Amino acid sequence: MGLSSPLVLFSEVHGTVLSDGKPVQGAELVQEVVWSDNKNDVPPAHTLSDAQGRFRFPAVEHRPGVLRAVPHQPVILQKIIIRYEGRDYTAWRHTKNSYEPNSELDGKPLDLECELTRAPDFEGTHYGICKAI
User: Fold this and answer.
1) Which helix (H) or strand (E) holds 62?
2) How many separate domains does the chain show?
3) Which pLDDT score is estimated for 67?
4) Tell me, what's the pLDDT at 2?
């Protein structure tokens, strides 16, 4: 990546919301990113699952400013919450330590299957009801 390349704070996400293995339509998904002292620097993104339970969030990018030129260790807190039928589910919680795209899963795209009946748990370095597929 060049010095002017955008910083990828959260890679593009594709996923499916399921309940007992069946697609869930109309679940609200909220994506949050915290990476600076200003918690409002990146406003939360919202989307709804479609009739097949699918959802998508585009990559969250930020202009690099001087950060590409200054040595430092990024610490980017990522979260996706699913809201469905009056309940909140921790879908994805992860700390990203790179500005590179798809670094959350060591280069693999973020393609998630989120089962509402699954208990949140760790899968590698991320936590929640979503599993990488």
Assistant:
1) strand 60-62
2) 1
3) 66
4) 57
pLDDT at 68: 63
CA distance 131 to 114: 6
> How many C-beta neighbours within 10 Å does residue 20 have?
8
d(CA 69, CA 37): 20
Which residues in the chain show pLDDT less than 70? 1-3, 37, 66-69
**pLDDT at residue 36 in the model:** 76
Domain membership flag for residue 106: yes
Distance of alpha carbon 103 from alpha carbon 96, whole angstroms = 7
Q: Residue 104: which domain range? A: 7-132
pLDDT recorded at residue 100: 94
Residue 90, CA distances (Å) to 55, 86, 113 in order:
16, 14, 13
CA distances from 101 to 36, 52, 60 (A): 19, 26, 10
Work out whether strand 110-115 and strand 13-19 pair parallel, antiparallel, or are unpaired: parallel
